[in-house]
Structures are given as C-alpha cells and as structure tokens.
Amino acid sequence: MSFLDAGAVTPSNREPVAFPTRRSLLVPVFITLVTVAVAAALGRTMWRAYMDTPWTRDGTVRAYIVAMAAEVAGRIVELPVVDNQFVHRGDLLLVIDPTDYGIAVKLAEASLQQAKADAENAVREATRRGPLASSGAISTEEQQVSDTKAVAAQARYHAAEATLAHARVNLERTRIRSPVNGWVTNLHVRLGDYATVGRNQIAIVDADSFWVDGYFEETKLHAIQEGDPARVKLMGDHDIVRGHVGSIARGIDVPNAQPNGQGVASVNPIFTWVRLAQRIPVRIEIDAVPDGVRLAAGMTATVEVEPRLRADPPSSR
User: Fold this and answer.
1) d(CA 187, CA 193)
2) 64: closest CA among 196, 195, 207?
C-alpha cells in the first residue's frame, strides 16, 4: 500500500463536524439585550436623580458671630480667655480698668446725698410757709418762690439719681461678659491694650446658631418646600448631618438692577443663548449632629433634600 493510501481519510473514519444550534446562538443575544436594557434603565434613573433630585455640592456651614465691642474706654487689665476657648453665657471675657469709673460712682453718690438734703430742706421750708401765706404773714409771691425752690430741688435730686445710675452702669460695663454660649474666635486683643468705645474687641461664634446654606439651582426649587428632610455631608467627614429645610431665600443680587451715576438701570447689552440657572440660598436647619463631627462656620458641604410625599399640590411661592 502506498504512502498516499495510508494517509488517506476514508468516509468511514471521518469525524462529524459540530454546528451551533439555534438556542446556543440566541443566548448571547439575549444576555446582550438584557444588559443593554438594565444599563439603559440604570442610566435613566441616575440621570433623573442627577437632574431632578434637589441636591447641590454648593453648600456652606453658617453661624452667627457676636462681636463684643467696648462701651467704655480704658486699658484692659484682665483677659481670662484665650483664642478658640469655649465660653458659657455670662462668663467674663475681659475687664477694663475700673478706677475712673469707680471714682465717678462715688462722686455721683455724694452729689445725690447733697441733692437729697437740699430737696428735703426746700420741701420743709415750703411746707412751713404754707400756713403763713394763708394767714397773711407773708405775701403770695414769697410762697410761690418757696414752692418753686422746692420743685427745683426735687428736680436736681432726680437728676442726681440718674447721674448715679449712669455711673454705676459705666462701672458695670468695664466687665464684658459673653451673651451666648460659643467659642472665642480670632482673638487679637492683648492684656494692656487700650479699648476704644465702639471698637470690636472679641468675637464669639454662637454655638446654638449653626445652620447650612445650600445654594440650589432655580430649576430645582419646585421640588423643595419648607420642612422637607435634608441630608448634609461635610467635605471633610463621612458622617451625615440631619436637618430640614427652614426657609428659602426670596431674593439675590441682580446686576442689571444696579443704578448708574444718574440713577438709571445699568443693563448689560449682551444676551447669550446659553443661560445659566441662578442659585438661590436654601436655609437648612440642623436637627442632629453625629458624635465626633465638628462644625465650623465656613465649611463646605453637600446638601440633599428629600422631598416628602404631598397630598395637596404645593402652593405658589
């Protein structure tokens, strides 16, 4: 037998070729269609959540700052607080030299005693002259002069009382106390500095006044109402701060409304086809702060409002 005859493949020993069935061809197509459908649904859901859900990354933690200014002038002789120290309402912040104001109180007390003695004497004299005028021992004019002196002495006595009260108030004002619970911030005053009337000496961050301002696009305000729950995530923290919508601002700055030197509106002559949605401040009142989260005015936050189901349509705002 030849070499070609030995390597030849006869029909009897040829192996059958496997062809894919119709079911095996449909399985990849079905998986692909299901994957595309799921991806499209998830994409649409994420797009609606991004476009319609009221949330913003443009949020800021806010707090009221109480600026403490001296109401009397003098040198600072006591400064029992340091920067960033927590103080309670009524705690002493600083003391202005009370020497001059203490002397003013003593002078006012002496003046009051003198005015009181003068007033009592004038009243007694007027009282003694009353019967004499009735009997004709003295003239009516003399009686009227005596009564006038008594009234003037009483007025001087009341003025002395007011002067003493003012002196005591000024003495009390030499001791500046915290009106709120909070933290001393940005303390620059030093022991021995001279305090001037009306000049801010100490600033206190009110610990009970924290809130969050979320600046939402105007296209998302329709889904926000007062009282809606809100989630606040600080940029530097993973915990969620809970709150609710307290109020929505009713106005922002309008550049076109600014008047020029003649009092007329300065309108921008350029109007572009691409218009950016204005951002409106929404105040978020804080309900609960997780343990370990430290709030500081000025922090950046992401704010997400959770609209409640409403039986009635929202009223016009």
Assistant:
1) 13
2) 207
Give the integer Cα–Cα distance in Å for 157 and 111. 9
The answer to whether the Cα torsion of 84, 86, 89, 92 is positive or negative is negative
Residues ≥6 apart with Cβ < 8 Å to 211: 61, 62, 63, 243, 246, 283, 284, 285, 286
Distance CA 23, CA 169 (A): 97
Q: HSE, CB side, 13 Å, CA atoms: give it for residue 78.
A: 12
- For residue 194, the cross-strand partners are 75
As its CATH architecture, domain 99-173 has: Orthogonal Bundle (1.10)
Pick the CATH number of 54-64+207-305 from 3.30.200.20, 1.10.4030.10, 2.40.110.10, 2.40.30.170: 2.40.30.170
Domain ranges, ordered by start, for the chain: 54-64+207-305, 99-173
C-alpha distances (whole Å) from 213 to each of 75, 175, 182 are: 40, 35, 20
- pTM (predicted TM-score): 0.73
pLDDT digits (tens, 9 = 90+) for 51-61: 667 899 999 99
The string of pLDDT tens digits covering residues 164-176 is 999 999 999 999 9
pLDDT average, residue stretch 281-303: 95
CB neighbour class for 265 (10 Å; exposed up to 12, middle 13-18, buried from 19): exposed
